[in-house]
Specification:
The chain has 11 helices and 14 strands. By secondary structure, the protein is of the alpha/beta class. It has one domain: Luciferase-like domain (TIM Barrel, Alpha-Beta Barrel). Helix 3 links the parallel strand 4 and strand 5. The termini are close together.
């Protein structure tokens, strides 16, 4: 099977990624010992490759949700670097990197290195950041949303320049670089896909329209469609063809063969089952296929779920064997 980047947009071209367990949503808490937790994360990442997923994804967080719980959370870029050497074809994404956590010059260096050491498999995910608890805990300033999004825009401009130019000198409102070198350059031509996460309708989606190869935002079908329309409007304002942006969605995934098994589950966030189902991929394989078709008809062509039953792999395996083949 060919493993396709999430860039480009063709009506029949639909891509499927999946998160690996990393600990952010407490999904490794049932396993004793940090090494055993990591081994399970690796095992599931390698299973995703064998099952034919296009890409594997990690979050960029340090503390657990819904609340910090002193449970292992493996750091995004360290984990990606390791997984790049333990897999060979599956693409490697971040959903999404928190822009504030790393200087953009350093981020260009990290991302280009990962693209080279993985053989050109990076999907670069970036967002403005939101988890105030982590910012405070790690000593990062937590600027107003307008400033965080302004910083995101400048960071994307800097990273793309450093990927593609011999040297980058940049003087923005938030960042300043003088003759920054980034060698080696990424392997992908013209550069790795840039996925910008977030559904803020006034500011974030405008940055997507200006700079993104891919978008990622959530919501039930009605909410998702509203954000799609907002992105289209921003694209027309900046003279961008919206069809050059792949729109993706990252729901939680819980698949079982029988309705009774689904009725017995609950969301990490304590949502009522009906609400959880409305905005996620929760149901039998047939129901999940119907939901994907609904989002596809709205223009979504990338599905990147997190499996709510990790470290169990039943949802992941049913999705790969009984859902994805219907869309290939």
């Amino acid at each position: 099977m060919t493993h396709r980047p999430v860039t480009g947009h063709h009506s029949n071209d639909i891509v499927f990624g999946v998160f690996m367990p990393q600990g952010w949503k407490m999904e490794l808490s049932s396993i004793d010992g940090a090494s055993a937790k990591w081994n399970k994360a690796v095992e599931i990442a390698q299973l995703a490759e064998r099952l034919g997923f296009d890409s594997i994804w990690v979050y960029d967080h340090f503390h657990n949700v819904p609340r910090p719980s002193h449970e292992a959370v493996f750091e995004c870029w360290t984990a990606m670097a390791a997984i790049s050497q333990l897999t060979s074809t599956i693409r490697l994404g971040q959903m999404v990197g928190c822009n504030s956590y790393r200087n953009p010059g350093l981020l260009a260096k990290i991302t280009s290195t990962l693209d080279v050491i993985s053989g050109g498999r990076l999907e670069w995910g970036i967002g403005a950041g939101w988890y105030e608890n982590e910012y405070r805990a790690y000593g990062y300033e937590f600027p107003k949303p307008k400033d965080r999004i302004g910083m995101l825009r400048e960071s994307v401009e800097i990273v793309r320049s450093m990927w593609t130019q011999a040297e980058t000198t940049y003087k923005g409102k938030y960042y300043e670089l003088s003759r920054a070198n980034c060698d080696p350059k990424p392997l992908q031509d013209p550069h790795p896909p840039i996925l910008i996460g977030g559904g803020g309708e006034q500011l974030t989606l405008r940055v997507v329209a200006q700079h993104g190869d891919c978008s990622n935002f959530g919501g039930n079908p009605e909410e998702w469609a509203r954000k799609r329309d907002t992105l289209k409007r921003h694209c027309s304002e900046v003279s961008r063809d919206v069809d050059t942006i792949r729109m993706t969605w990252s729901p939680e995934l819980f698949v079982r063969r029988s309705e009774s098994e689904i009725d017995r589950t609950r969301s990490l966030w304590g949502e009522p089952l009906d609400a959880w189902r409305a905005g996620n991929l929760v149901g039998t394989p047939e129901q999940v296929c119907e939901k994907i078709e609904a989002y596809r008809s709205l223009g979504c062509s990338g599905f990147i779920p997190w499996c709510a039953d990790y470290p169990d792999t039943e949802s992941m395996e049913l999705f790969a064997t009984e859902v994805i083949p219907n869309f290939r």
